[in-house]
Design goal:
The complex is a heterodimer of chains A (297) and B (295). By secondary structure, chain A is mainly alpha-helical. Helices cover 71% and strands 0% of the residues of chain A. Chain A folds into two domains: 55 residues, no CATH class; 215 residues, MetI-like (MetI-like fold, Orthogonal Bundle). Chain A is globular. The relative contact order of chain A is 0.16. Chain B has a domain of 186 residues: Orthogonal Bundle (MetI-like fold), CATH 1.10.3720.10. Chain B contains twelve helices and no strands. Classes of the chains: A mainly alpha (297), B mainly alpha (295).
Chain lengths: 297, 295
Amino acid sequence: MSAPTTTAPPVVAGPVTAGRTAIRSRWAPYLTTFRYLALFGLMLFFLMPVYALVITAFKHPAEVSVSRMWELPASLSFASFAAVWPKLQDGFLNSMMLAIPAALISSMLGAMNGFVLSKWRFPGADAVFPLILFGMFIPYQAILIPMTQTMTSAGLRGGLDGLILVHIIYGLPITTLIFRSYFVGISDEIIEAAQVDGAGMLRTFAFVALPIALPAFAVAMIWQFTSAWNDFLFGAVLTNRNYWPITITLNNIAGGQSVPFNEAMASALLACIPTVLVYILLGRFFMRGLMAGALKG
Amino acid sequence: MRRIRKWGPGLLLVSPSLIALGVFVYGFIGWNVRVSFTSWRGLAPKYDNVGFANYRALAHDPRFALDVKHILVFTGVFVGGSLVVGFLLALLLERGVKGENLFRTVFLLPMAISFIATAIIWRWLLDNSGNHDTGLNRLLDLIGLDFARSDWHKTASVWAIAAIALPAGWALSGYIMALFLAGLRSVPDDLREAARVDGANEPRVFWHVVRPMLWPVVMSAVVILAHISLKTFDLLYAIDGKNINVDVPALYMWFTTFDGGFYARGATIATLLLLGVGLVIVPYIWYTVRSERHR
């Protein structure tokens, strides 16, 4: 795990291409053509489900037929969206109300942990870190029974509070990792300078470390928001129908056999919008979160 | 005393997180293992001690045996497939192509979509019911590849679950591409250049210079994919959770515990699942942390 800056792909610079021209054989033009063809083909495969999703969601319900499912709609229709939104909106709001605080608090705690584990180490900090990391890889089935028991006796089952708490706690390993990797890449001198100036740990953290860790904050927030939004398992055991997150609502609406395809696709599309929007707008930070998830700083 | 004053505040700052994780990860794992040694059935918890009876019962449980077979088939096809596709994508993009950002965005897009939404889309694409072909089969008809049509996960064989590697691979190949792309691009250019000056052609440069440096990436990719594969739950649940041909330990645990009330059996399956994941992930964490320290 090195400094987060190393994840940015290095620009392919001039000398590389220049150096290759010497060896570039007569096959080179064909290779380039082949490369684009292959990429284009693979892109079509990756877009195929997205295509089916989007065109079906925008078809007029009367136009939806199994044999013509791959054909473009004759005209754009929002009827399917109008039909499913009333059923979906509670789940949508619930997920917003749980994913945002879960992401914020988990990131904040992760920032503190990451700072301490890299810049204000206590004896045994190196032994504690792998133990924290383990938490992000466990199959949640292995804690599900004790967790539901505990949340029930704590009176935190049914509503959103318990679900938020659980997302915060199980988000800690990855947020800690993201911030620790980030702070490891920052020189100790900045921290030491603050100490020389007489700042204590909290002041050093709040006024020196935190302001420069904004990129890491974006990475952690996005990761946590996405995983809380996309979670199904915790929501399924911890909430009752008034507080179902979007994934549960979506599965209930679109999972049945008798649901028209256009409504299923419209619901799935609506449920994806927030995370896909975040991905498109802040893709760079999303990528770094992915790298952190593989323990690649 | 002076030293405690120095690191004490740091420990204090992280202690809420450490305690929370200690309880919610390690405490709960221990508790779950405890439940696996009981005969708890039904809503009221029961903490007796039946030793390894639940483990022995699972060893003779045909459904669990089937689940293990399924998860092995799924892991093989899904990990192998995603690895090949992800590596291919990275190789195609490595030297910089026009529109690289667009390609990358498309290949990684499925990562932003929940497994539930992925399942909703793909359960339609993989549908085989009705009188007319639909979904993927319909598409194969249209482009003249109708010989490839299939019943996908509805096939009545142990290979049915291999069809689920299609949506799972669709979701995760882009991630593997990103890992390989970062790995390929971290190979210093002067190393390749030196090999070229020595007269090596591109395939040889790849084989002798790049390939040896990619092993850590391959290892990460395999570990990440394998542990995701063992944990797969939402995707299978929403595509066809009640289909015994795609049943896996994670689903069995869910249904037997929360629908059937067989808490002890559920805890036993969960413990075995954790052991499987731990076998893959613990050496990986150990290796990662150690190599960081040696740097």
